Amino acid sequence: MTNYSRESQPCKHVQTTSPSTSVNDVEPIQGFDHIKTKAQQYRPFHNKAHVKTRISRVHRNEWIEIDWDYLQRIERRKVLLNTHRDLCIGWNEPARLAIRELYEEVMINQLPKRFPQVFSIRQSEFSNGVTSCQYSVKIADLSEDYMLAMLSENVEEDFYFMCPMPTANIDFKRLLSSAKMGLSVREIHQPVPGYEDRLGNGVERHFKRMKAGDFVARLNWSTQTDGDELFKPLAKNTGDPDAPSTPLITSDGRETIDLAKTYLHCERHTLTCLPRTKTIMFCVRTYLTPIQHIKDEGDGGALADACDSMAEKLGVYKRRAVWGKQLCKWLRADHEGKVDGV
């Protein structure tokens, strides 16, 4: 499951030398009010020709983010859980203990300590002050399905489990979710240009070096040209799960996109190693920013340059042939017209 935001603010400086942290290092945000907290503004597009992982260390405090649109997005996630539960939640036996450990880490050790104005625990009951819902944290009595669903109802990050497989050549063999359950990291990233020959070995070495308490983050971006819906389990494209759907066709047969429905699609990936199971948790939160906002900020030219500078294979992967010419021309235009007038 994913989420989106319509408003943003400049992101905080990412720490590059943060040491390993534990639950004892979680610091409460004084006077936190999610209504007054704007979403982070991430602008990771760069004028580079090649894919890079760009991993940085971060503090545990930066693991989970909550902002002004929290309630609306959580309600949206609940609807998806009710209507597409089998597609939103998936697990198998190697992840059983990791699910229990993650539930404890997030629901007991992270949320009430980082955001005490929103979350609290009394005896064995977890309370969400924004949604007015209560959940059990008596982990021994809970099913794995329940815990995964309750995580989805309280945080906007999506969680993927990379479980140690002692008999495998690669330590972290399984990435577990409903859509990609049981696939190796290499299998999942097979469509990504440059992963197999340049990135794959480095990613696996990094996973093997991670120890309990490590938190790292990276950013990924693309364009999304078919509106703000992020739940697309049956999307058919060239490999990018967030690639746009079929473009519009003009009267003369040309492909075009609707700029009013075009967004910068930015994903914040955080990884941490769970202390007991040594499972690597891959956490994803997605932000959508209307393309008009990017231009209004004065970054239209920079985004257009980044789109143009993609290596050929990466451009194919991100379907640049569909949106590139039209979008980049508009981003570089000097006029101040809004998207509706394009």
Q: Rounded to an integer, what's the Rg over CA atoms?
A: 20 Å
Major β-sheet profile:
6 strands, antiparallel
Mean pLDDT over all positions: 79
Shape by Cα distribution: globular
Q: H/E element string?
A: EEEHHHEEEHEEHHEEEEEHHHH
The amount of beta strand, in percent, is 15-25%
Estimated helix fraction: 25-40%
SS-derived structural category: alpha+beta
Q: How many strand units?
A: 13
| Intertermini distance | 32 Å
Strand order of the largest sheet: 3-9-12-13-7-8
pLDDT below 50 for ≥5 consecutive residues: which ranges? 1-17, 167-179, 236-246, 249-253
Counting copies of identical and different chains, the oligomeric state is single chain
Number of helices: 10
Characterise this structure:
The chain has helices at residues 70-83, 85-88, 96-114, 144-152, 185-188, 195-209, 291-296, 300-308, 312-317, 320-332, and strands spanning 8-10, 39-41, 56-57, 119-122, 125-128, 133-136, 158-164, 172-176, 215-224, 248-249, 255-256, 263-273, 280-290. The strands form 4 sheets. The protein has a 6-stranded antiparallel β-sheet with strand order 3-9-12-13-7-8. It has a 3-stranded antiparallel β-sheet with strand order 4-5-6, with helices on one face. The protein has a two-stranded parallel sheet with strand order 1-2. The protein is globular. Helix 3 (96-114) runs parallel beside helix 4 and helix 8 runs antiparallel to helix 10. The longest helix is centred in the N-terminal third of the chain and has 19 residues, at 96-114. A hairpin with a 6-residue loop joins strand 12 (263-273) and strand 13 (280-290). Residues 1-17, 167-179, 236-246 and 249-253 have low confidence and may be disordered. It is of the alpha+beta class and 342 residues long. Helices cover 29% and strands 20% of the residues.
